[in-house]
Amino acid sequence: MININRQAIGPARPPYVIAEISANHNGNIETAFRIIEAAKKAGADAVKIQTYTADTITLKSDAQDFQITDGLWAGRTLWDLYDWAHTPWEWHAALFEHARKVGITIFSSAFDPTAVDLLEDLGTPAYKIASFEAVDLPLIRYIATTGKPMIISTGMADADEIAEAVAAARDGGCTELALLHCVSGYPAPASDYNLRTIADMADRFGTLVGLSDHTLDNTTALASVALGASIIEKHVTLDRSGGGPDDSFSLEPAELAELCQGARSAWEALGHVDYGRKSSEIGNAKFRRSLYFVKDMKVGDVITAECVRSVRPGYGVAPKYLDRVIGAQLEKNVEKNTAVQLSHLRNADEK
């Protein structure tokens, strides 16, 4: 269990849904404000931004190492991509204020210590470590010293690297830690997700576990709830065709609302081990099968197999009593279509 902004998160609570704004503001703070409002309306628990500049996350270089050669952003340098996609630091205070005004939690992915310092000044209630930064153990340790809850995405990290990240967080003083199973493809096919990893991750690393989902619909995220995901993170945009860096693999507001409702319904459906009759079944119990007389019979008659049938509804004795009924004598007269009761049988208590 962890707590973000006084909201408890864990298996005993509905999944905590994070709407990732990322670069989907497309350079317009008003768009960012509208995404925050849409996330609140859709039922998300939090919105998340990313705190970096091109210069804090990479180097301004045209060298081959810094070229993107495939995927959505092919043809750009890393510096160009991050300069295009970053959320200006001068927006941060306004975004935090707007989220608080709307009534939704806001926090951020920090990509270097200066970003942490900025977010501390803003009173962020938690931190996210992006998948690509999960190997930056000094950054993880620095964030851990804040004492805030930390969520680490694990895309591309193997088991040893995840263990190192967890150890760095705990050694640094983090006591509220969650891992997000993640595939760092943009978008990622559902077949890459191997959701059974979620339960193994919880057992192996002893942390709260969730899902950072980069698939194009909600199926993978909803399936993850059944396998123990307590947090679901999904990119959100106002318009998937908006042309921004992350728009094409993000949910639109109506889809986010479906995710929020679906995740909570999936969690409610998990319930607990219970073989008892459920409240919605009470009225239907009478329609189960039972034994009925199919002939008019008189006291003293011996009941044969031709005299009774197992049919619906369920007002008679259960079909399991058929062997007890066959061969018994009638204690009283009965009419055709009468529900069989043990009281109809002579010496029923002795059989």
Q: Which range best describes the helical content: under 10%, 10-25%, 25-40%, 40-55%, 55-70% or over 70%?
A: 25-40%
Number of helices: 11
Q: What is the CA-CA span between the terminal residues?
A: 57 Å
CATH class of the largest domain: Alpha Beta
Please give the number of β-strands. Answer: 12
- Listing every helix as H and every strand as E from the N terminus to the C terminus, the arrangement reads EEEHEHHHEHEHEHEHEHEHEEH
- Provide the spatial order of strands within the biggest beta sheet: 3-4-5-6-7-8-9-10
Overall geometric form: elongated
Radius of gyration: 30 Å
Which structural class best describes the helix and strand composition?
alpha/beta
Give a quick precis of the structure.
With 351 residues, this protein is α/β, with parallel strands linked by helices. The chain has two domains: 258 residues, Alpha-Beta Barrel (TIM Barrel), CATH 3.20.20; 72 residues, Alpha-Beta Complex (Type Iii Antifreeze Protein Isoform Hplc 12).
Describe the overall structure.
It is a single chain. The chain has 351 residues and is of the alpha/beta class. The protein folds into 2 domains: 13-270, TIM Barrel; 279-350, Antifreeze-like/N-acetylneuraminic acid synthase C-terminal domain (Type Iii Antifreeze Protein Isoform Hplc 12, Alpha-Beta Complex), CATH 3.90.1210. Helix content is 30%, strand content 16%. The chain is built from 11 helices and 12 strands. The protein has helices spanning 29-42, 54-57, 78-85, 92-102, 113-121, 137-144, 159-171, 197-205, 219-226, 253-270, 322-325; strands at residues 2-4, 7-9, 16-20, 46-51, 105-110, 127-129, 150-153, 177-182, 208-213, 231-235, 290-293, 308-311. The chain has an 8-stranded parallel β-barrel with strand order 3-4-5-6-7-8-9-10, surrounded by 8 helices. Helix 1 (29-42) packs parallel to helix 4 (92-102). The mean pLDDT is 95.
